[in-house]
Design a protein that fits this description.
The protein is mainly beta. The protein is built from 1 helix and 13 strands.
């Protein structure tokens, strides 16, 4: 309903099941830490404003079959590619793998998604593999301890605010 989760400032991600057909106005308004929404539905529910697409990454058609966590990294598997959507691990130094395997199928890691590592304040170094071509908005925003990042020449797009607030 309207304002259902409004001002839940610690909420970082939401999974909306396929049974949801309507989302109330400003249902997630003021959820300042919410950056990723996983929707099992394949298209936008009614009442879902474009506001969400502008300020948060929304993945449609995502189920437990195409969302996987490995070594603290959450991936969405789409079109034979893996997108890094969130880091929940505790490592201070991280090397993102080139590929991820699920059920005997290999997916190339091609994108560091919206706010995937945002506010990982203990992360000090990251190595991005040569399979990655895109680093999306705010991917490493607020990583205040990040002092070293290896970005391969395969990366052709670094979006707005990808490293905003990386003060170290």
């Amino acid at each position: 309903g309207n304002y259902a989760f409004s001002c839940c400032t610690s909420l970082t991600s939401v999974t909306i099941p396929s049974s949801v057909i309507t989302i109330g106005d400003r249902a997630f308004g003021g959820c300042t830490s919410l950056t990723i929404i996983y929707c099992e539905v394949t298209s936008q529910p009614s009442g879902w404003s474009s506001y969400w697409n502008d300020y948060r990454q929304v993945y449609y058609g995502i189920t437990n079959d195409n969302r996987v966590e490995k070594d603290g990294i959450i991936y969405v598997l789409q079109n034979n590619e893996a997108i890094v959507t969130r880091y929940v691990g505790k490592d201070i130094g991280l090397t993102i793998p080139t590929t991820i395997e699920l059920n005997g199928k290999t997916y190339n890691v091609t994108t560091i998604g919206y706010y995937a590592f945002s506010n990982c304040t203990s992360l000090t170094s990251v190595t991005i593999p040569s399979s990655v071509t895109t680093i999306e908005n705010g991917a490493f925003a607020g990583c205040t301890s990040l002092t070293s990042i290896v970005i391969p020449s395969s990366v052709t797009t670094i979006e707005n605010g990808a490293f905003a607030g990386c003060t170290s």
